[in-house]
Write a structure and sequence with these properties.
two-stranded antiparallel ribbon; 2 domains; 281 residues; binds S-adenosylmethionine; 12 helices; Rossmann fold; Release factor glutamine methyltransferase; single chain; Helicase, Ruva Protein, domain 3; 9 strands; seven-stranded mixed beta sheet; HemK-like; SAM-dependent_MTases_sf; alpha/beta
């Protein structure tokens, strides 16, 4: 079968199964199977797929048609300009989480960060991006999921920052020392179980529940993380957390007694990242 015909057929299958951005998905998965870029697809519509290529392409399209995210099929997602390995054990890194890195970079203009904790590291995307930005910082990256930590370690090695990051299994900050860190950063699970039906099907059915949901209202992890972060930080240290679209006021309420609270908005104008400073002595 010709490449253009295979693409047309895949597009039809994805559209019939209500997969959003069907063309982009059909092309991404063909690029994955052929190991080529988009320019090649457009330049060689007449290229014949081998029997093996056609079978593999059909298999990926069938998987995608079930709602499985393309990133779990290709095993890759870009974050902060870096390529990350992903599997169904980890949340797929989101573009809005880059605002966490941007916020930390802004804070770092006034204060240096030598000891950083990343809580709920998942794929390791935040820890690895920060290791690249702060090459002399020591980073502790924890997660409650051993399977996620394996992926995070692989990503740190892939980007040659494994010596800078100590990975460990921990329930939030329980396994880490107190009063040591000058920055605690986290993109915690923050979707309420009561909002599960509003979440996209591919998130609800394919991404790890422990990475997405946090109690009925989405606040359970914040309630535990904020006091733990206060204990883990040195005086004057910063806590930087990603937030869901509706929790800003509740999270601010939990930050009573912290200083310099500041919010970063995402490109849609949603309050996405909150930062707060533990009072200096
Ligand atoms: C929203 S994901 C974020 C992953 C990654 N940091 C990112 O930004 O893409 C939340 C992560 O927190 C982890 N997690 C959930 N509950 C936790 C807990 N009690 N202690 C430590 N990690 C937890 C999940 O396993 C998941 O990897």
């Amino acid at each position: 079968m010709r490449l253009d015909a295979a693409l047309r057929r895949a597009l039809r299958t994805l559209e019939q199964n209500d997969v959003g951005s069907a063309r982009m998905n059909a092309e991404t998965l063909l690029m994955f199977v052929l190991g080529c870029d988009r320019a090649y697809l457009y330049a060689h519509p007449e290229r014949k797929l081998t029997g093996d290529e056609e079978n593999r392409y059909n298999a990926t399209i069938t998987e995608r048609a079930t709602g499985k995210p393309a990133q779990y099929i290709t095993g890759h997602q870009e974050f902060w300009g870096l390529d990350f390995i992903v599997s169904p054990a980890v949340l797929i890194p989101r573009p809005e989480t880059e605002h966490v890195i941007e916020t930390v970079l802004e804070l770092a203009r006034a204060q240096s960060f030598a000891r950083i904790a990343d809580v709920g590291t998942g794929s390791g995307c935040i820890a690895v991006a920060l290791a690249k930005e702060f090459p002399v910082a020591n980073i502790s990256a924890v997660d409650i999921s051993p399977a996620a930590l394996e992926i995070a370690r692989a990503n740190a090695a892939r980007h040659q920052v494994e010596k800078q990051i100590a990975f460990g299994e921990s329930d939030l900050l329980a396994a880490l020392p107190k009063e040591l860190f000058d920055l605690v950063v986290s993109n915690p699970p923050y979707v309420g179980e009561s909002e599960a039906d509003k979440v996209q099907k591919q998130v609800r059915e394919f991404e790890p529940k422990v990475a997405v949901f946090s109690g009925i209202e989405g606040m359970d992890i914040y309630r535990r993380l904020i006091p733990q972060a206060r204990a883990a930080l040195t005086p004057g240290g910063w806590l930087v957390m990603e937030m869901g679209y509706s929790v800003e006021q509740s999270v601010r309420g939990l930050l009573a007694g912290w200083e310099n609270i500041r919010v970063t908005y995402d490109l849609q104008g949603i309050p996405r990242v909150i930062a707060a400073r533990k009072p200096a002595l």
